[in-house]
Amino acid sequence: MSSITVGKVLNNNVIIAEHPQYAEVVVIGKGIGFNRKTRDRINLSSVEKMFILRSQEEQEQYKQLVPQVDEKLIEVVQEIVLHIMQSSRQTLNEHIHIALTDHISFAIRRSEQHMAIHNPFLYETREIYPEEYSLAEYAVERINEAMKVTLPPDEIGFVALHIVSALSNRHISEVKQHSELIGDMVGLVEDSLEYRIPRDSLDYSRLVTHLRFVLERLRRGETVRETSSLDGLMKREYPEMYMLAWKLTKVIEQRVRIPVYPAEVSYLTIHLQRIAQKKEDEPELEE
């Protein structure tokens, strides 16, 4: 029967081992590393949780990280990762094992020291990535339960971005940049209109979703068909919103360093005009 060979014991519950098919693997299990020595053999049938870190760099980072964090957290994060894979039916970038463990460990320390960190892009993250946000809600709830802590709701947004990063194979910094950019553009719209868009409104959801798709189209290099008649109509009928849309596309170009197709201005104008109309329709409060 196949077996794995212990390469390095990281703690009582985590070892690095040589697998007959996958080379070096990380094995997690209650007491799997207790009293184990290098070159010990373990029957594969007794292994419950295992994952592969193909990158040598990832392996080294994980080996350094594990001794610094609570053993229970390693097990819970692995449970969360398996839940994400089963729910999304997708493979995850292996870096999530390191990134999520490191992030949650730091978040728990902050919570214990009463150092709250506000997430200014929580609403945007929930709107842009609803499925990943739902998975993050499960993750934070499971961590709170297993680690006997109370992580704030802001952490759900941060964890969601790590999940997006792992599912899309994009670096967390790029995912975070898009979320922050959308938040900044919403702020720019609100400043220009002198109107706060209700976060639970359909207008807010439509605007954020549209901005997300603009960024996704740019990332994938998709072209947007020119509609000169629509462009002329928007410019003529809604000049203020057209100029605001043009300003937003310039912000996008500066931040992501990719030219935005002019047609995007027309489509964005439609969303902005809807919001501007909503502001006009609202009754003014008497002082």
What's the layout of helices and strands?
Layout (H helix, E strand, L loop, with lengths): L2 E9 L2 E6 L3 E6 L12 E3 L5 E4 L3 H10 L5 H18 L7 H17 L9 H7 L1 H18 L6 H15 L3 H22 L8 H19 L7 H10 L1 H18 L6 H19 L6
Antiparallel strand pairs: 1-2, 1-4, 2-3, 3-5
Helix pairs in contact: 1-3, 2-3, 2-5, 3-6, 4-5, 4-6, 5-6, 6-7, 7-8, 7-10, 8-11, 9-10, 9-11, 10-11
Report on the structure:
Pfam families: CAT_RBD, PRD. It comes from Paenibacillus silagei. The protein is an alpha+beta fold and 287 residues long. 60% of the residues lie in helices and 10% in strands. The chain contains 11 helices and 5 strands, in the order βββββααααααααααα. It has helices at residues 56-65, 71-88, 96-112, 122-128, 130-147, 154-168, 172-193, 202-220, 228-237, 239-256, 263-281; strands spanning 3-11, 14-19, 23-28, 41-43, 49-52. Strands 4-1-2-3-5 form a 5-stranded antiparallel β-sheet, with helices on one face. Strand 1 (3-11) and strand 2 (14-19) form a beta hairpin. The mean pLDDT is 86.
What percentage of the residues does DSSP assign to strands (E)?
5-15%
Question: Which residues form runs of ≥5 with pLDDT under 50?
Answer: none
Distance between the termini: 81 Å
Tally of DSSP helical segments: 11
Mean pLDDT: 86
Largest sheet: 5 strands, antiparallel
Gross morphology: elongated
Task: State the total count of DSSP E strands.
Answer: 5
Sequence of secondary-structure elements: EEEEEHHHHHHHHHHH
By secondary-structure content and strand pairing, the structural class works out as alpha+beta
Widest sheet: strand ordering: 4-1-2-3-5
Radius of gyration: 24 Å
The percent of residues in helical segments reads 55-70%
